[in-house]
């Protein structure tokens, strides 16, 4: 497997992290750039670490992880996405019910992007990279080369997703949180059904 093939593999593995980054950008629109950069950093890190784990563990736990990977991803992203949808719908309903001038402090509550949220999402979107590590070992591909390339590719894709998410969030306005939640639930379902 050559460098170009590893980059393509990295792009394919980063697709879920890319979509989650865009969704999070909708929901956490008021977060600082430095806090939003947690996503590319953590998603890239986990996309790089999971192939190493798969490579090192080989066949020991690969079957079990592959068996439950879809369920784990569905549960994590389904819960986060479902909560985003619920909160977004409540916010949209609340915005439609305002009759008079807004009272001070009555605006929407700014949500915080926590490290726990980013870690859970990073793990959920990187589980499939474990299986890739097992296949890298089977193909005698150097994980020392592949893992950093996959991590860097994911990082760059997620940085691009931050910029795209900001623009889409401006276009979608108040519906961005609901759209983001739907994307997360769909990614979870895709992982479960795959």
From TrEMBL:
What function does this protein fulfil? Answer: Probably functions as a manganese efflux pump.
Per the record, the similarity remark reads: Belongs to the MntP (TC 9.B.29) family.
Q: Name one GO cellular component term.
A: plasma membrane
Q: Which Pfam families match?
A: Mntp
Q: What is its main location?
A: membrane
Q: Which domain of life is it from?
A: Bacteria
Q: Under what name is this protein listed?
A: Putative manganese efflux pump MntP
């Amino acid at each position: 497997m050559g460098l170009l093939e590893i980059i393509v593999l990295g792009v394919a593995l980063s697709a879920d992290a890319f979509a989650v980054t865009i969704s999070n950008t909708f929901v956490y629109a008021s977060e600082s750039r430095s806090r939003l950069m947690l996503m590319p950093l953590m998603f890239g890190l986990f996309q790089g670490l999971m192939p190493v784990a798969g490579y090192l563990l080989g066949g020991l736990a690969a079957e079990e992880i592959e068996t439950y990977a879809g369920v784990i991803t569905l549960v994590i992203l389904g819960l986060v996405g479902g909560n985003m949808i619920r909160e977004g719908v409540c916010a949209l309903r609340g915005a439609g019910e305002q009759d008079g001038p807004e009272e001070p402090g009555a605006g929407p509550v700014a949500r915080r992007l926590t490290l726990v949220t980013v870690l859970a999402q990073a793990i959920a979107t990187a589980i499939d990279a474990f299986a890739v590590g097992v296949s890298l070992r089977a193909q005698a591909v150097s994980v020392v080369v592949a893992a950093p390339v996959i991590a860097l590719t994911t990082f760059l894709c997620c940085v691009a997703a931050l910029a795209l998410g900001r623009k889409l969030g401006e276009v979608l306005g108040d519906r961005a949180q609901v759209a983001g939640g739907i994307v997360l639930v769909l990614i979870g379902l895709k992982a479960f059904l795959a």
